[in-house]
Specification:
Blueprint: E1 4-6, H1 18-27, E2 32-35, H2 43-52, E3 56-61, H3 64-69, H4 71-81, E4 85-88, H5 97-115, E5 120-124, E6 132-133, E7 136-137, H6 138-145, E8 150-155, H7 156-161, H8 166-172, E9 177-182, E10 184-185, E11 191-192, H9 201-207, E12 213-216, H10 224-236
Parallel strand pairs: 1-2, 1-12, 2-3, 3-4, 4-5, 5-8, 8-9, 9-12
Antiparallel strand pairs: 6-7, 10-11
């Protein structure tokens, strides 16, 4: 199975040198990377690093403020490095439905502009999106309020953490789920390496019939460098 790596998985590793992180991701067998910041490199420099390691830019987690305030600059960067996706990784919902509608509007407006760059816009969930507003999950409301060309990157760790069946949830959302974060949950709801927890990733792959990319993410109290290798070997053997 080909999988990418969310580079946040190596946060604080390799002296936070993004060149070394990308090189290590390639060494561990990941065919692509998803960014969470660009480590101070301009787009031309980043493209050189990617090409040197024969690894693809899958997309980025770009802060909500970037979507609102510097969208075209980010889209231009992503286009130059060959990325396909620009994802909101986190948003606040302090104002209930008003907040949900605002996030949906930001996604819809960004998606229209992103088309000009050949990039798809999406949203990544945490557990908070399984809180209910007007009787529905926030994540469901976002899916209902966004246009067809806005996609979702479902993090199955957080789905499970929220007490929702990840296989049924992913399958029920069909084409809206274009990206999957492969992330494992273990005892006491801790994020553990992929082989060690309760989520069956073969079942996730079967459930995500329309997913185009599977991206590994590792957090938690683990050796992240070692975990990167363990997870890479695990998905390679799926």
């Amino acid at each position: 199975m080909n999988a990418g790596l969310q580079l946040w998985s190596l946060n604080d590793c390799f002296d936070n040198d993004i060149k070394k992180k990308i090189a290590y991701a390639a060494e561990c067998g990941y065919y692509g990377v998803e960014f969470a910041g660009f480590g101070g490199l301009n787009a031309s420099e980043m493209k050189e690093v990617l090409d040197a390691n024969s690894i693809k830019a899958l997309g980025s987690h770009s802060a909500y403020d970037i979507f609102k305030n510097s969208l075209e600059e980010e889209l231009s960067y992503l286009k130059e490095i060959g990325a396909k996706y620009m994802i909101i990784p986190w948003a606040e919902y302090k104002d209930g439905m008003d907040s949900v509608k605002e996030v949906a509007d930001v996604l819809n407006n960004a998606a229209k502009k992103a088309k000009e760059y050949g990039i798809t816009v999406g949203y990544h969930n945490h557990a908070q999106e399984f809180e209910k507003v007007d009787g529905k999950y926030i994540l469901d409301l976002l899916m209902e309020l966004t246009d067809d060309d806005v996609i979702f990157e479902v993090d199955v760790f957080w789905v499970t953490y929220a007490g929702v069946n990840p296989y049924e949830y992913v399958a029920s959302k069909g084409k809206k789920v274009e990206l999957i974060h492969l992330k494992q949950i273990g005892e006491e709801k801790k994020n553990v390496v992929l082989p060690d927890g309760e989520i069956d990733f073969a079942k996730i792959r079967e459930s995500a019939k329309y997913a185009k990319e599977f991206i590994v993410e590792q957090e938690g109290d683990v050796d992240k460098v070692e975990a990167c290798k363990i997870n890479g070997d695990f998905v390679a053997n799926m």
